[in-house]
Amino acid sequence: MEMLMLCLHSILFFIFLVSLNINISSAKTSYNVLTYGARPNGKTDSTQAFLDAWTAACGSTAPTMIYIPKGRYLLGSVAFTGGNCKSPDITIRIDGTLIAPEDYRILGLASNWLSFEGVSGVSIVGGALDAKGSPLWDCKSKGSNCPAGATTLSFVNSNNIKIDGLLSLNSQMFHIVINGCQNVKVQGVRVIAAGDSPNTDGIHVQLSTDVAIMNSSIKTGDDCISIGPGTKNLWIERVRCGPGHGISIGSLAKTMDEPGVQNVTVKSTIFTGTTNGFRIKSWARHSTGFVQAIRFIGATMINVQNPIIIDQNYCPHNLNCPNQVSGIQISDVMYQGIRGTSATPVAIKFDCSFKYPCKGIRLQNVNLTYFNKEAQSTCTNAIGKTYGQVQPDNCL
Ligand SMILES: *[C@@H]1O[C@H](CO)[C@@H](O)[C@H](O)[C@H]1NC(C)=O
Ligand SMILES: *[C@@H]1O[C@H](CO)[C@@H](O)[C@H](O)[C@H]1NC(C)=O
Ligand SMILES: *[C@@H]1O[C@H](CO)[C@@H](O)[C@H](O)[C@H]1NC(C)=O
Prior knowledge:
One of its GO terms (biological process) is carbohydrate metabolic process. One of its GO terms (molecular function) is polygalacturonase activity. With about 400 residues, the protein is mostly beta strands. The chain folds into two domains: about 25-205, 3 Solenoid (Pectate Lyase C-like); about 225-395, Pectate Lyase C-like. It contains four helices and 29 strands. The chain has an eleven-stranded parallel β-sheet. A six-stranded parallel beta barrel has the order 8-10-13-16-14-11. The protein is elongated and about 65 Å long. The chain starts with a helix and ends in a 5-residue tail after the last strand. The structure holds 2-acetamido-2-deoxy-beta-D-glucopyranose (NAG) (3 copies). One 2-acetamido-2-deoxy-beta-D-glucopyranose binds near residues 187, 214, 215 and 238.
């Protein structure tokens, strides 16, 4: 009996040691911004404290965590750069809200509010970013002399990034930008801005590979997600859009020499009251760009003005493009399992380039109606096929 008890004891002790060890090895060295002088009162500028915490976390060779406790932190425009970072893994855990200065001109003249440049292994977990953009939108709507405005959160030339459970409120310009990055996971993000706020795209991706955007909700005044040149292997799943302009590949052909967009999958999207559902848009201009291997799978459209649209003749104000055709070759684009209601009579519109017609368009099990009536489709320079039930009747 005694032997047994002893044996049991050592087993329990062993289990205890193992669990202790697991706890120790998963703990990260933590850098609390309060230690660096940040004040959670919403009034004291905490920009330098955040930068100092970043520098400290970065300088460690171990995985680190920057902790931002509950409270409101006033931050000006700040760039977190990776140049001197040794830490392979920096988690920024935000339990509080970061707020922009009251005077919109302070951020308005900077192009970014919070930017990460050349970083690797950075995760942002939780938190709210309140950019206080509405006075700038008001200024713009009055047409007075207003600054362009700042992107709320951007990652530039960075790898292995996670954004998890973040709330972005009232950005001056774009809410989140992923530019020149590899391996980015955006999960459970919420974006909220007024439906008439200008240029407040939810998430913009460009020149980036292996980006996933999952389980997110985006209510804003411009594109829900905009996909720019040089995007490859983008996966979007379970995103809710609206109000806003929907999910857009483009505008492309902004410049003559432009990398293409390829291998984009958008699954299980819900659009509510958006101007577009799935849009591909290019300027009517020459360009080396292209769009290839795009899958729009499973979507519910509720009162969407242009549920499915390709517009290759974009030429606002007829400037720098009249009488030109788009050089963007669009091919292999699938629309599958898309149902719901169009807010205009034309639910499907393919307006493609005369010089480079859209090729390999595939419509499968699409059912879009217009006020319980049949909707219409229009096609110009579009080649493709339909499979299964497709309403409105295709014009391909
Ligand atoms: C997204 O949500 C679904 C359903 O709630 C869940 O199963 C999945 O794990 C989530 N995705 C991520 C990346 O957390
Ligand atoms: C397309 O992208 C997905 C991720 O979004 C990736 O898993 C897949 O391998 C890519 N396909 C090709 C052919 O590169
Ligand atoms: C298309 O949707 C309408 C409205 O929801 C429905 O009444 C109709 O039966 C559907 N058609 C097909 C072929 O599923």
